[in-house]
Amino acid sequence: MEYLAFIMFGAVFVLLLAGYPVALTLSGTALGFALLGSSTGSFDNAFLQALPNRLFGIMTNETLVAVPLFVFMGVMLERSRVAENLLDTMTALFGRLRGGLGISVMLVGMLLAASTGIVGATVVTMGLLSLPVMLKRGYDPAIASGTICASGTLGQIIPPSIVLVLLGDVLSSAYQQAQLDAGNFAPETVSVGDLFVGALLPGFLLVAMYIAYLIGMAMIKPALMPVTTDIHVTSDGLWLRVIKVLLPPLALIVAVLGSIIMGIATPTEAASVGAMGAMLLAMAQKQLSLARLKDVMRTTTQVTSMVFLILIGASVFSLVFRGFGGDDAVREILTSLPGGVFGAMIVVMLLMFLLGFVLDFIEITFVVVPIVGPILLGMGMDPVWLGIMIAINLQTSFLTPPFGFALFYLRGVAPAQVSTMHIYKGVMPFIVIQLLALAAIAYWPGLATWLPGIVYGN
Amino acid sequence: MRLLEFWLHRLSSGIDLICEMTGRAVAWLTLGMVLTTFTVVVLRYGFNTGWIAMQEAVLWMHASVFLLAAAYTLKHDAHVRVDIFYSHFTPGRRALVDLLGGLLLLLPSYVFIFYISWDYVWVSWEIAEGSRETGGIPAIYLLKSTILLMAGLMILQGISRILHNLMVLTGIEQAEAPAPPRPGTPGAEL
Question: Does residue A397 contact residue A356 with C-beta atoms inside 8 Å?
Answer without folding.
Answer: yes
